[in-house]
Design brief:
The chain has three domains: 148 residues, Beta-Lactamase (2-Layer Sandwich); 85 residues, Helix Hairpins, CATH 1.10.287.130; 155 residues, Heat Shock Protein 90. 51% of the residues lie in helices and 16% in strands. Strands 2-1-5-4-3 form a five-stranded antiparallel β-sheet. Strands 7-9-10-12-11 form a five-stranded mixed β-sheet. The protein has a two-stranded antiparallel ribbon with strand order 6-8. Helix 5 runs antiparallel to helix 6, helix 6 runs parallel beside helix 10 and helix 8 runs antiparallel to helix 10. It is rod-shaped and about 155 Å long. It starts with 9 loop residues before the first helix and ends with a helix. This is histidine kinase. Keywords: Kinase, Membrane, Phosphoprotein, Transferase, Transmembrane, Transmembrane helix, Two-component regulatory system.
Length: 461
């Protein structure tokens, strides 16, 4: 379930995540920095107070106990074993002992930080006077020197933490702003692509999304989108062209059928009902043939590559030739020693050879030759008849849906004109080609398909 306060924009999400992470990291760094600065200042104060204490103790000699150091910042006290102040510097005079308890024999030098209620903390060093000096001046009673200094205002008033917190917040804000700008600059091409996509409609598929330079993911997305739009544009154009031609082809027989039925209703006494029914059946058969061809074309266009399997073209060429028992004879010649295997849909490839053989037998005078061989990485199947051939200007037109040349309409009046178009679509779906090439006599249809290894390489790209 999405969080209600989660921002929708990727830019905002990235900036928020960057802000949270940077705040956590910088807070940890700031905490460590605060401890390091405090430790450094305290260490410096310990060294200074130790120096003051040891210098005063070193001055205690035969001439007696010298006056305490007179530095205005130094808090120095001489205390006895009951922790009573014997003498003190001007800054520490009249005050209670700086610390307690009294230093023991085993730890004669101690560093302490004392924080009296309501007062500034004192960083001090407690040094026990040497036994020789204690016997000389106080009859062996232990004495100690407390030397301290008040913490600097930077530490005592928590200004250090305040400055570090302000620095952490400023750096977090700067990092968040930089992340926002960087993410916005990165996503700018995505916004441009989105704006352009919103302008694209089915009525106008000529627009393309802007392609940023480089090879990053956004550039690849733009190139993939434009490639998809190219394929979609071609597909929509083909569908529109196909739909217009189908509607044109179906309109004529349906209009004729309606006219015949209306005449049969209006002129019942003058119309033979059986003849009307026979004519209607022939018309519906033609419509059904067109619809069946249309469904076959749709299946070829939507067939998945997962349905493909290894197919031996030599085998299906011989099987299809053997099945053509009517009409002129069909001869198969194999020009490849190790067989010709491709990756494809066996049923669809058999349909291609069937249509090519039916077309060749329809126009041949005495024979049809089928030649199966190889050319580089392609399998080549040639269907050659000895008929009148196809004029160069019509060699591409014959593959258009519902296009039927004059000789074709004469030889097969009931044809739909979709056979060769279906063959071309099947060849394209198998990453191959189908074309009409030059021939000394008759029509020469050449089908080229990638061999098995080459086809598998194309599918893995």
């Amino acid at each position: 379930m999405p969080l209600p306060l989660r921002p929708r924009s990727i830019q905002a999400q990235t900036a928020l995540m960057s802000a949270v992470l940077s705040l956590i990291v910088l807070t940890v760094i700031g905490f460590g920095l605060d401890l390091a600065i405090r430790s450094r200042i305290h260490s410096h104060l310990f060294i200074e107070t130790q120096r003051v204490a040891t210098d005063w103790i070193a001055g205690m000699g035969p001439n007696g106990v010298p006056e305490p150091p007179a530095g205005h910042a130094d808090l120095v006290q001489l205390v006895d074993s009951r922790n009573r102040v014997i003498t003190a510097s001007r800054a520490a005079s009249g005050h209670a002992p700086l610390t307690s308890p009294f230093p023991g024999d085993e730890d004669r030098l101690q560093y302490r930080i004392e924080c009296p209620d309501g007062d500034r903390c004192v960083v001090l060093t407690a040094v026990r006077v040497l036994p020789v000096q204690s016997r000389l001046f106080w009859g062996g009673e232990p004495h100690a020197v407390y030397a301290g200094r008040a913490e600097p205002g930077l530490l005592a008033t928590h200004r250090l933490e305040l400055f570090i917190a302000i620095g952490v917040l400023m750096m977090t804000a700067g990092w968040t702003w930089a992340s926002w700008r960087a993410t916005g600059r990165t996503l700018r091409p995505v916004r441009e692509i989105r704006e352009k996509v919103t302008e694209i409609s089915v009525r106008d598929l000529s627009l393309r999304v802007p392609q940023p330079p480089g090879r990053d993911e956004i550039a690849e997305l733009a190139r993939a989108s434009n490639s998809f739009l190219d394929r979609l544009d071609v597909s929509v154009r083909q569908q529109r062209h196909f739909a217009s031609m189908v509607s044109h082809e179906l309109r004529t027989p349906l209009a004729g059928l309606r006219t015949q039925l209306e005449e049969a209703l209006l002129y019942r006494e003058e119309t033979d009902p059986y003849e009307t029914i026979r004519t209607a059946v022939r018309t519906t058969e033609r419509c059904q043939a067109i619809i069946d061809e249309m469904l076959t074309v749709a299946r070829v266009r939507t067939s998945a590559a997962a349905e493909h399997e290894p197919v031996d073209l030599v085998t299906i060429a011989r099987e299809e030739a053997a099945a053509r028992t009517n009409g002129v004879p069909v001869h198969v010649r194999v020009e490849a020693e190790n067989g010709v295997t491709v990756l494809g849909n066996r049923v669809q490839l058999c349909g291609v050879l069937t249509n090519l053989l039916v077309n060749a037998q329809r126009h041949a005078c005495s024979k049809v030759d089928v030649i199966v061989g190889r050319s580089g990485d392609d399998a080549v199947v040639t269907v050659l008849d000895d008929g009148d051939g196809i004029a160069p200007e019509d060699r591409e037109r014959v593959f258009e849906p519902f296009v039927r040349l004059k000789d074709g309409r004469r030889r097969d009046p009931k044809g739909t004109g979709l056979g060769l178009a279906l063959c071309r679509l099947t060849a394209d779906a198998h990453h191959g080609t189908l074309s009409v090439e030059d021939s000394p006599r008759g029509a020469r249809f050449v089908l080229r398909l990638p061999l098995l290894a080459s086809a598998r390489a194309q599918l893995t790209r």
